[in-house]
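Exercise 3.2. Students should predict the tertiary structure of the chain below and write it as structure tokens, then compare their answer with the key that follows.

Predict this chain's 3D structure.
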Amino acid sequence: MHDRRQPPPPARPLPRRPQPRARKRTSWRPWLLMGGALTFGSVLALGAVAFVALLLMATPDRVAAGVTVAGQDIGGSSEREAETLIADLAARPIALVDGVRQWQVTPGEFG
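Answer key:
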């Protein structure tokens, strides 16, 4: 038994149970913002493609503005005019030079 002169033995601490970790609360806001931005960008890109397609369909017999072939501007001309101009360009000879030697060939000869 205990003698009153001796201190009681130290009590053993009870083993601690591991506490479950508090689950971090995830925020949906970044995902919603990213999804909204992606949706908006997709709709904007689709609208731009549709606008260009409508422009091309509005003038189906004309070559788009700014188109050049061999330095010749064919933009805004009709398809027939463009075909005639390209055929004339294909019939023109091209000078090939190798030092002092020269050849005249047409693009049709190259295929």
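Discussion points: Residues 61-111 form one domain. The helical segments are 29-58, 79-91, 107-110.
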